Amino acid sequence: MSDRPFCIFVVDDDSLQRLIVSDHLQGHGYQVHEFDSGAGCLAAMDLRPNLILLDIEMPGQNGLDTCRQLRAENYDEVQVIFVSAHDDLETLLAAFEAGGNDFIPKNAAKDVLLRKVEIAIEAEEQKRQLQQQLSYAQKTAFTAMSSLGETGLVLQFLRSSFQCLSLQALGQLLVETMDQFGLHVLIKLHCAGQECFFRSDANCTELEKSILSYAAKLGRISQTGDRLALNYPNITLLATGLDVEDAELMGRLRDHLAIIAEGVGVRIDAMVMEQERLQQANARMAGVKELVDLIAEIEANQARNYSQLEHLIEQHRIEMEDAFVFLALTDSQELQLHAIVDRLVTQVETLFVKDNHLALRLHGIVEKQRQLLRTA
């Protein structure tokens, strides 16, 4: 309950009835005000009554009309208990339709009246508790929705970070994510001797770089006033202008930023490894290309040698036949020399046939490697 006394309006054109009711209410800590008309009651609503004991049968503006005007003017929090000498069904329905909360007969016993007031007080307290519970539930739901949205930003950043192939791209993505969190940040990313600096709305000044260098000497997570510094491998992040009055929000931000900062560090390590693997792959590709070029040169040279050797063998055969004329050899000697030359030619051709098979296989390998180089 509020520290303010429970305020009750007693509205009745009968002064004796007002006196009786007010007397019954004395001694219980209630603040009681009397009015002889509905108009007087309406004019005093700035006194913020909790309960109105309202007579139905009054001259001029009766109790039903007074209650209807109260509800029309949005005094929905005020409870109204109608008081009437009539308790027939028609009267009760009219009281309900006018917006009443309860009904009590005139000249009711004191204990009945007090019990009705207690019920009104209990109803107001229950309503207050329900409003508090509703407010808490709404706040909890809003916090959960906010946390869910923030978690979505974290997950989106982690997914997008895998597409970043440089510190510059990763830093820009980080700045954009911090903007979505509504944070003003200074960021330093570093690896393998390379350093990149970022801030939310412009390039980092030399002073801000010095601040980041100082922040890098602090602990893993350090907060001073509205400033929060995080240090993880390969990253220093400094957020400023935080809402320190919202402890729950601060706790969520620390958790989210820690996950993001650690993810940045891991991504930078992965980028370094990817660069190393890419350099190794490029070196292997260069070696393969050099080998392919060498094999192609050997293949071309072998083809030229084979063509030249064929020409030399044929030229040698012609020269041998021409020489036979001047040597005056017998037929058997000529045949014997021809046989020697033919055997030599056959042996050489056999060797070249084997070499040709190897050359064809080598040519196939060269073409496959060239195809791989074109698609790499």
UniProtKB/TrEMBL annotation:
Q: Which Pfam families match?
A: Response_reg
Query: Residue limits of the Response regulatory domain?
Result: 7-121
- Residues that the record marks as modified (4-aspartylphosphate) are 55
- Xref: Gene3D superfamilies: 3.40.50.2300
- Enumerate the PROSITE patterns for this protein: RESPONSE_REGULATORY (PS50110)
Q: SMART domains, alphabetically?
A: REC
Which residue spans adopt a coiled-coil conformation according to this UniProt entry?
113-140
The record's keywords, sorted A to Z, are: Coiled coil, Phosphoprotein
The molecule here is called Response regulator
